[in-house]
Fold each of these.
Amino acid sequence: QVQLVESGGGLVQAGGSLRLSCAASGRTFSSYAMGWFRQGPGKEREFVAYISATGGSTYYADSVKGRFTISRDNAKNTVSLQMNSLKPEDTAAYYCAAGRPRTTVRYEYDYDYWGQGTQVTVSS
């Protein structure tokens, strides 16, 4: 069982930066792949970024590639999402998720545990 708690959301102007963090409980964090998803107003939840259990592999949605960076610290049971050059369309609730390594990484069913989310609002 893994419990996830996100933090770091807030209000930022377009072009600004935010760093989201996700703290995980449990002693098996390092065996889980981690992902970030987001759900904007009136939209379905969508994939944002993925990092493998070891941190050696990452993958991003095209909409955030080059602006967002996912990282993890297995010693501290945390995963982070550094978001730069934020745009109003990045406004959403952001969720971290944990899942056993699978072939695919960008679908909700790839993940077994979810946090409650943290709100990011980007003003124009």
Amino acid sequence: QAQLVESGGGLVQPGGSLKLSCAASGRDFSIYGMGWFRQAPGQERKFVAAISWNGSTYYANSVKGRITISRDNAKNTVYLQMNSLKPEDTAIYYCAAGSPYRTPTWTVDGYIYWGQGTQVTVSS
């Protein structure tokens, strides 16, 4: 059974850093495009970053230069390194898997599997 489990969220001060992890199991996720989305209270789930099966990366304009997505296929894990965090980055962050060998999309409906989310709070 396919499963994605996020970890690494927490409370951080503005300007701080966090590294989120997404541990995947139950499928050969090395051939899947993987994405991170976030959802703040009262808002829709929004695209943050994605990485294709062959390592190409894609970012939302709001996070470019501050956030880096990476993957370690040997560990079946996808990471989201977040630096220079701002209060507006506060949200639940979700990991998602798209279709095998397909370019990741920017939309929620382009992903098949989802994790349960991890809370990130940026506050002083």
Amino acid sequence: QVQLVESGGGRVQAGGSLRLSCAASGRTVSTYAMGWFRQAPGKEREFVAAVWRSVGTTYYADSVKGRFTIFRDNAKNTVYLQMNSLKPEDTAVYYCAADQLGLRFAVPDDYEYWGQGTQVTVSS
């Protein structure tokens, strides 16, 4: 079993930055695909970013490309999401997820483990 705990959410003004952290425990996740998803009120959970297993290849949703960066620190068993130039439309609960196979990084149903989420609110 893998337990994931997100932190770093909060309230920020448009144009600001936040760094989310996802600390994993129970197993080493260096060989897992790790993803960040978000869900705004009344909307479906959507893919934000993923880092593919130990190779480190990254993928981003078009809406965050160039503003968000996903990276992992395998020594700390932690994945991060650096969010810059935040916009009000980035407001959502952000979830970290782990997928042992990593075949379809943007598909929420493929991820076996999920954190509890952290709220990000961007005011205009």
